[in-house]
Amino acid sequence: MGKKYLGTDIGGTFIKLGIVDDEGNVSMRREVPIDRSGNETVMETLMRGIDALIAESGLEAGDFEGIGVSAAGCIDTTKGCVAENGGNIPNWSFTSVAGPLSEKYGIRATIANDGNCVALAEAWIGAAKGVRDVICVVLGTGVGGGIVSGGRLIEGAHGFGGEIGHFPTHADLLMTGDGKWSSHYETFASTGALVRRAFASGKDWPNGKEIFEAAASGDDSALKILDGWTDEIAAGITGLVHIFDPTVVLIGGGVSAQNDLLIKPVRDKVLRTVTPDMASELQIKAAALGNNAGMVGAVKYFIDSTDRR
User: Fold this and answer.
1) pTM above 0.70, yes or no
2) Is the predicted pLDDT of residue 259 greater than 80, yes or no?
3) How far apart are CA 163 and CA 211, in angstroms?
């Protein structure tokens, strides 16, 4: 193993931790549950996990080049903190992350949005390895993702760039699962939207897994629900393709394993609707790195930011 980094990925339920080398290889991968009762802050849980990982590795903090953090929510990368929208992580908004980690461990730390980290990881060692123009769309309860253009992550002025799930795809508003009105892409294209679509059709399928299972067995209602849902996914991707002209579009999230019922129909629909010049070489496929993508991308973000210093 070459240079070593501490990679972490903070989600709504677990913090993933591991040692990542300068080629993206992950070792000593661990998961620590987030205390949603409020007895321990996310930062306390994170530092406890890092302490245990360092101790178990037999190394010292100074043996690592730095700490890369991937996290849900709007991340202000210039300040190394979480902005007002902390996502589904309890008491996460306005948390300072990079500074406290650097102070405690004596090495530099960075933090970036989890969707951006997935895009970086996939373009580094994943399904878009070596590709300079990549869009990654991560389908889950919401929709995340990131955009790599000309070999560089699009971040915007503060690190908020690439919030794919929040660009409007409809003029009309739709009621979301939390009782709010929205026209955002994730309101129509997330797995949560898939379940709401099934409920509106009179079907009591509680999650995407059951809908896909019903569709795979030939259930006409499930197939119709998936057809409408993949229309929404494809429409958003078509818009993004026309703006950014990528070589590869990756679809991530647990549902991305559904090739015949998700990846293929979305690919077919996008290629039918984008302009012919853009469709000629466009690839649309599943992301490859799964649960390691956030950690790997967090380290890639750290490495890239070090090179820019």
Assistant:
1) yes
2) yes
3) 27
